[in-house]
Amino acid sequence: MSTILKVDHLYKRYGKAVILDNVSFEINQGEIIGLLGRNGSGKTTLMKLILGLTSFDAGQITFKGDSDYLKKSNLMDEFGYLLDCKLFEYLSAYDNLYVIDKYKKSNKSKKELHDKIIELLAFADLPNNKKVVKGFSFGMKQRLGLALSLLEDPKFLILDEPFVGLDPLGVEDLQKTIFEMREKYGITILISSHQLSEIEQMCDRYLYIQDKKIQKVSKIENKQIKIHLKTPASKLVQELEQLTPLNRDVLILNDDIDLLNKILKIIYLNGGAIENISIESEDLNSLFKGDRG
Q: What's the superkingdom here (predicted)?
């Protein structure tokens, strides 16, 4: 996969307070990346830096290999975002989309704009009638925000806490919509949320902000395979310990299929017996439990 966004040695301060300290990471085309961290860790600030809504003190951000993308409208038009979304409460969903497009001066023809709005309303499961946004449920407003973020056919979508305030059905519907956005539009998505179980299901990998720095977490690294042996012979123990540590007749290894096959072959050739094999996942809650600062 090709890199679409690259952040190098980024620093951000507000007065004397350091918000982000030497942050570096890359995001590849088509990925769904979860941005995690405790309240006040700098998630929203990082998103604003990427969008040019606030400035950074040192470092560099490049989009599609261009570090001056913030000054180029053709590249900035490739971003869509749900971030401090403001809606026109006394307009309909259709009119909200219409007004925002005119404000952005996209130069769509009247028919092109109408067709696009109808497509997005259907995609977000929103009514095409005169009901004003003030009467919408929270979930409907969130879906309208997503529709607004897709109005200019973005290639990179930034979603800040899109699940906030949604009931379980609303979360499920929004999660489905986000998956469909990637499948239908091929969009790269950076999403922050405190709904950790939903993030685990959705994302390809995670960026976790802790102590003002980025910790990169992959799903594969979170999984461990445990093999419980039944009184292994000393010769078997010696061979296995050349590949992975053995603790009280229990082998623990990362989710590595090649290594697992080698270990199972050694056990079989040495006449070993397996009591149990289990796969355990260190969920994302463990990141927050270990971050008390």
A: Bacteria
